[in-house]
Amino acid sequence: MRKYLWGLGLLVLVLPMRSQPLPCSGPTYRSFDFWLGDWDVFNANGNSKTAHVRVESVLGGCALREEYTATDGSTGESLSSWNAARHTWRQFWVSSKGAIVSIEGNVRDGAIVLTGTEQGTHAPDFVRGTWKPDAAGVRETAQRSQDNGRSWEAWFDLSFRRPVPSR
């Protein structure tokens, strides 16, 4: 009996394992990885710090989670992920001020460009956000439209920079 059980044990050990690709492991899932890390956030046209942001890979690399803490104490979080079925990036943002933003889009000219709706703090707007790597780190710009995308106005322009270690 022992020999038979031991034989089965060896049989299990020598069976070839099937290698399956990891979920969320293709290059498209990594196209937003330039945003990963700890960032001090500044108005792009000045040196006034507006927030600290931490962006990390979560859920086995299937999503990016952003934790945003503004200098005024307000906070927000987003979850961004690649939707392989729709071939689009999707982001859902919620803030402590009641803003809810649901946007989607794709890579365009080396940037992630997402468009959708913003609600919660005033009349709903159509919004467009663009994240692009630059020499300082990452630049995030956003625009709003009150006529469903026929015309756009600037909303914000931010520069994400690596924190300078304190001495």
The protein's oligomeric status is single chain
Number of folding domains? 1
Secondary structure class reads mainly beta
* Average pLDDT: 87
Order of helices and strands: HEEEEEEEEEE
How does the major sheet shape up?
10 strands, antiparallel, barrel
Distance between the termini: 69 Å
Total number of helices:
1
The CATH topology turns out to be Lipocalin
Low confidence ranges:
1-15
The CATH homologous superfamily = Calycin beta-barrel core domain
Summarize the structure.
Helix content is 8%, strand content 53%. With 167 residues, it is mostly beta strands. A hairpin with a 7-residue loop joins strand 9 and strand 10.
Report on the structure:
By secondary structure, the chain is mainly beta. It has one domain: Calycin beta-barrel core domain (Lipocalin, Beta Barrel), CATH 2.40.128.20. The chain is built from one helix and ten strands. Strands 1-2-3-4-5-6-7-8-9-10 form a ten-stranded antiparallel β-barrel. The chain starts with a helix and ends in a 6-residue tail after the last strand. The N terminus is likely disordered.
